[in-house]
Design goal:
6-stranded mixed sheet; 8 strands; 2 domains; Aminopeptidase; alpha+beta; 12 helices
Length: 312
């Protein structure tokens, strides 16, 4: 269903966002402990006039223009966090949660659905839980990730997230000739805790086809995905009956690139991996156990670039 516009207040001593933060945390099932930490840090921010003014002014810049430079805003929030003496990662999450309010208006102005907006709030929760797993802090350590959601270039379609990008080379996939620079849909797989099942994936593709139909008038839609799940090392470890394997099989892998180390596998193990010592990594799933054995052998990991041409 379409969204309705909402009244936006800047973060001043009179108009703060405590009620909004409580609403979002409750509506999107944020953990009670996380909500408490977020609200406490926000109260600490409010008590420092300089920091709170900087936070509010930066929020207002976005409310006035969703194309406001995101890296500049992030730097301002980092400075406000330092001034108030709160954790930088938590301050980032407070900021993007507050940005959801003007984002709701931008979505309403463009006729985007309430479900799409709500999925952004959920993505913030996913990243908050990742940050807690990796650093023991309720916040986010991947602030640049949110930029495309808030400048209205990346959108959520249920189980998958996508944005338009220019293809990085010339390829022939599923009988279709693709040229470097062609507009394609870059696919992201958020860590939601929900299965990556065929029904959910197909529904995401369907929603994306409808949303981006103006870009694909020729009877097919082109999806591209770059992920460690498509690297040759991962493919050799996946159970062929798994949802991940079935997802990957839709794509033609056009190339793979190796990483220098294993640090990118924090996504799999929910913790920092700074070297090749894998003895203390969690081994509670079959995929984790397989990767641990693979890493013990000293072999390379990396990412693969897959392309899926879905004909209509």
């Amino acid at each position: 269903m379409p969204l309705e516009r909402t009244t936006i207040h800047s973060a001043t001593a009179v108009n703060d966002h405590t009620d909004w933060l409580n609403y979002v945390c409750d509506a999107f099932d944020y953990p009670v402990e996380a909500k408490s930490e977020l609200i406490n840090c926000y109260q600490t921010l409010k008590e420092n006039k300089q920091a709170f003014t900087q936070f509010g002014d930066t929020l207002q810049k976005y409310a006035d223009d969703h194309k406001t430079d995101f890296s500049m805003m992030s730097e301002q929030i980092k400075n406000a966090a330092e001034t108030a003496g709160i954790n930088e990662y938590t301050a980032y999450t407070l900021f993007v949660l507050c940005l959801l309010q003007p984002l709701k208006n931008f979505y309403a102005d463009n006729g985007y659905s309430s479900d799409m907006w709500g999925e952004v709030a959920l993505d913030i929760r996913y990243k908050l839980l990742e940050c807690y797993d990796v650093y023991g802090v309720y916040g986010t350590f991947v602030m640049p990730w949110f930029e495309k959601f808030f400048d209205l270039t990346r959108f959520c379609f249920g189980r998958l997230q996508m944005e338009t990008v220019a293809l990085d080379g010339d390829y022939v996939v599923n009988g279709v000739t693709l040229k470097k620079g062609d507009t394609v849909l870059s696919v992201h797989i958020p860590k939601t805790g929900r299965p990556l099942d065929k029904t959910s994936v197909e529904e995401s593709y369907r929603k994306a086809r409808e949303f981006y139909k103006e870009y694909f008038p020729s009877g097919y839609t082109v999806f591209t995905c770059k992920t460690y799940l498509m690297h040759s090392s991962t493919l050799s470890l996946l159970n062929q009956d798994s949802n991940i394997y079935k997802f990957v099989c839709d794509y033609e892998i056009v190339y793979c690139r190796d990483y220098e180390d294993y640090s990118e596998l924090w996504r799999l193990f929910d913790r920092k991996i700074n070297d090749r010592d894998v003895t203390d990594l969690p081994a509670d799933t079959s995929l984790r156990r397989k990767f641990i054995e693979y890493m013990k052998s000293g072999q390379k990991i990396g990412y693969g670039h897959g392309i899926f041409v879905q004909k209509h």
